Amino acid sequence: MVLQSSAGARFRQRKISVKQTLQVWKQKDLPDLDTEDQQRELQQIETGVEKGEEEEEHLQKVINAAQAKFSGNPNKKVEQVYIPTPDASKVWPESAKYYTSKFIEPASYIKFSATVEDTVGCPYCLDEVDEEFLAKLNKELPNKVPKCTESEFELVAYRFETVINEKQPFITVDPSQILKYEEIRDIALVPDKNDPLDLERTLAKQLGISNFKTLLDAKPSDGREPKPLKDLFQLYGAKIYDHWKKRRLERNGKPVFPALRYEDPSQKDNDNDPMLIIWFSCVLKEN
């Protein structure tokens, strides 16, 4: 079955809309190339590229060669043509300068199953507003209290974000109802099995390793390992909470750290938003 296209054009438009039906070809609907009008029927099959790209020189040679092979004289020899690709066979002479470790080829394929979130460390990244607050915070701390590093600030702020996103997903309706510091602290100190950071702390405690790190863990930018989360809340938690809460309320309850936007059916201007991430799903229905 061929779905009728609302646009009625031979080629799909550049801008795809979820409200527009797409033409789907099934094997039984393809023209029979063994008929007499092979050349005419070949024109009905889409090339799979944009209309403007069909005029590319090398692609035209490949298309013409394919048409000549199936529609011309069977005894005529057709030249094999290919779309040129960059040469990847050259050797980089300066590779030894930058790669000093000796590579040991494993017996099996190299496998890597860790996700990006598991390897980048804390997802929260402080901005210029946080940097200004952190500098002010460290100046006001007593001499006996160690300075709060950027990595430690990000850990505490990220914990605030995750707790609110989990416990108050609809905080944007009424941001004034945001949890108090004591409530967030009690929840934040409970280990979360789904959080890679809490998983490391749990394994470190079970294995008796004070500094549990793997080869996949990102190193702190300042070179200092952050303190335990409990100590961070005790030293800086209340002051960081006041700063974080102020920023969250300024954003009407939305997360301080930017997040990807997805399609919202209640919004009518989604098609005009260039920053919107839309997931398309194609469903084929059998008759």
In short:
It is built from nine helices and two strands, in the order αααααααααββ. It has helices spanning 38-42, 57-71, 95-98, 116-119, 128-140, 150-167, 181-188, 196-207, 229-250, and strands spanning 261-262, 276-277. InterPro entries: Enhancer_polycomb, Enhancer_polycomb-like_N.
Largest sheet: 2 strands, parallel
Spatially, the strands of the biggest sheet line up as 1-2
Number of helices: 9
Termini gap? 8 Å
Radius of gyration computed on alpha carbons: 30 Å
Low-confidence stretches: 1-9, 38-44, 277-287
Tell me how many strands there are.
Answer: 2
Strand content: under 5%
What gross morphology would you assign? elongated
Helix content: 25-40%
